Structures are given as structure tokens and as C-alpha cells.
Amino acid sequence: MFAPLRERNYRLWAAADLVSVGGTWMQVLALNWLILSATGSATAMGAVVMLQSLPVLLLGSWGGALADRIPARPMLIACQAIRALLALVLVLPAGNWTIYGVALISGVISSFEGPVLGRFGSSLVPREALASALALGSVLSSAGRIGGMALGGVLIGITGPAVLFLINAVSYLAVIAALLAMRTSEMRDLARASSAAGGVIAGLRYLLTQPTVLIVLALSFVLGSLGRNYQVSMAAMVSGPLSGSSGAYGLLSTVFAVGAVAGGLLLAGTGKSTLRVLLGTGFLISALQFCSGLAPNVLGFAALILPIAAGAVVFDTVVSTRIQLDTREEMRGRVLATVGIVSSLSGIVGAPSIGWMCDTLGARGALVLAGAVTTVAAVAGAAALIRVKGKSLNWSFVVGRPAEQPA
């Protein structure tokens, strides 16, 4: 389970990432409070989220092409420094347009930083430890989110939002320090694309020749759109058919976070990030989502939320692992950028869709319908992968063993 932690560079990165994720979620909490207190509008909050997501859709492919050509560490140091400056801008008294500007610039940074992070992370551990490293990263992200939100919730009432922005700025300095302290001699060299190898178009052409990757991305989009927006459906269930209180919603949010940590630990322990695990987990969480719409009470709903959250982390981590292991190294940044675009699209499409279904069909109807659609999608994805891999589930397909450098 903890094989990646034997690597000094990964230990430095993991510790810095935990601090940075905690700081990021403290800033998210403070920013939401600041916007709501200034405008009283949930629409304004939605605009901030949109401004952070839109650049990924527009610039992500170029960010991936750049990631395949340049060294990762200097790029990451520059991105962290800019993010720290943006957090410091928010410390000063800021109007709504300043907040929107910071959100937009953050989205632009994410467009280039995301693919670079993916390549850099895979260089810190041996290839065979990548699945465990990504799973541990999910655990640390969940832990950082829980810790950051909890500490931020306490501090914001005492100090106001400015201190939370300052803490986030300092957290980026921890990441920069970790990057500077790493030993480059211990990093795994990844093949980089040459300037003559083409950019975005070459990446698109390569992706179109990888049917397995395309099927995985399509399945990720459907399950991400209709099966990941539990912040919407949980609130609708608690306030509607379950007749719960704000305390019940808090309980469900905690259960979801615990499930996410458990899923990461489970995957890190087994290290099995195969296509079979991907398909089985996708089917399981879809079926459980269908059942959650029939839950009789809050405790019954919570009992289903726990494995759903665990399975969602397993599914998403296996998607990322397969994408990285089953694509050529010099194309990996562009493929990872596509994963980021799919993730952004699933959030932009999924949240309003689930909200509309909750308003139209009721919370139970929305979960049942979404669960049915994602279950059918999981079965269809399995059938498509079986057809691509051959007429039967042979051993190579079962273990998900890729070629060393797929064409």
C-alpha cells in the first residue's frame, strides 16, 4: 500500500500536496462566504465556478501539448508562485470584478498546470507503483479537503476570510519548497515530444486511434455527469423525501468524505487498477445510485452513500491510471488534458441536469433515472471494451496489462 512513500521525492510531494489542498479548500470556503455576503446570490457563486472551468475547456488541449514538450518542475514552480500571488490579491479588500478576475486567471493556470501535474506525478515513482501513488493522492486530497474545510469553518468566524486567503498563499510556498528540495537524479525520465512532432492536432489524431481510451473517457463522462453530483442530489433528498435537517446533510457529507478516504486506501492497498476493476466499480456505484433513490430514511441513504463515495474514488483513480499507463509517454500530457476537459464538461453538464431532474421528477426520481442511465452505460462500456479487446475476456484484458509503449 505504502510503496510510493519509499520514494523521497514522493514523500515530499505528498506532504506538500496535503498542505496545499487544505489551503485551497479554506480559500474555497472563504471565497464562497465573501461572494454570498457581498451579493446574496448563488448565481454569482456559479459564475465563479464557470470562470474557473471555462479556460480548461478552451485551453486544455494547448496545455497538454505544452506539457509534453517542457520540463515539468520549473513550470509547476511558476504556477504555484502565480497562485500564491492571486491568493494574496484576495487578502486585500476586493470587489466582485477582482474576484471574477482571480477566478478566470486561476482557470487559465489550471489549463496548463493539470497536464503537467499528471506527467510530473508519474515521474516520482516506478511505473509499477503508479496506481498506488494515484490512490494515495486521492486519500490525501480527501483528507486535505476535510481538514481545510473544518479548520476554515472555525477560523472564518473568528478572523474573517482574509486570513484564510493568506494561509492558502503560504501553502503554495510549501509546494515550491518541496519542488526545490527534490532530487532530480531520482526522478523517472519520461519521453518528451519534439517540436516537429505536432501539437494539439497530433494529440487528437493519436487519441482517435486509441479506442480503449475513448471508451473509458466516454464512460467517465456519463458517470461523472449523472453520478458525481451528489452535493446536489443529497441536498434535494434531505430537504425533500427524507425530511432531514441541516444536521442530516452534514452527516451525509461526512459519510461521503469518509467513503472517499476508504476508497483511496482500498485501491492503494490492492494496487489493482485494471479495466475489470474500472467496469465492475462503474456498474456497482451506478446500481447503488439507483437504490439510493429508494432509501427509506437518512440512515439508509447514508449506508448507500458510503460505498458510492468509495467506489467513485476507485473509478476515477483507475481512469487516471489506465490513461497514463496505456498511452505513449510523449502523448500523455495531451491525453491527460482531454481527461481534464471531460471532467470539466461532466461538471458543467451534470450539475444543472441533476438539478433539473430533481425539480422535475423529485429527488428520488432523479436518482433512480440517473442510476438507471449510468448502469446501462456501464454495461454498454463493458460490451464495447470486450469487442475492442476481442470476443472474450482473455487474461490480458482481465488484468489490464498494457503494452510497454502502445502505438
TrEMBL record:
Is Nucleus among this UniProt entry's keywords? no
First-listed, main subcellular location of the protein, grouped into a coarse class:
membrane
Q: Which Pfam families match?
A: MFS_3
Topology class, membrane: Multi-pass membrane protein
> Span of the secretion signal?
none
Task: Provide a GO CC annotation, any one.
Answer: plasma membrane
The record's PROSITE patterns line, in alphabetical order, gives:
MFS
Gene3D superfamilies named among the record's database cross-references: MFS general substrate transporter like domains
Q: Which molecular-function annotation in GO is an example for this chain?
A: transmembrane transporter activity
Q: Which residues form the Major facilitator superfamily (MFS) profile domain?
A: 1-389
Q: Keywords on this record?
A: Cell membrane, Membrane, Transmembrane, Transmembrane helix, Transport
Give me the segments passing through the membrane: 12-36, 42-62, 98-117, 162-182, 203-227, 247-268, 275-295, 301-323, 335-354, 366-386
Q: Where in the cell is it found?
A: Cell membrane
What's the name of the protein? MFS transporter
Native species: Actinoplanes aureus
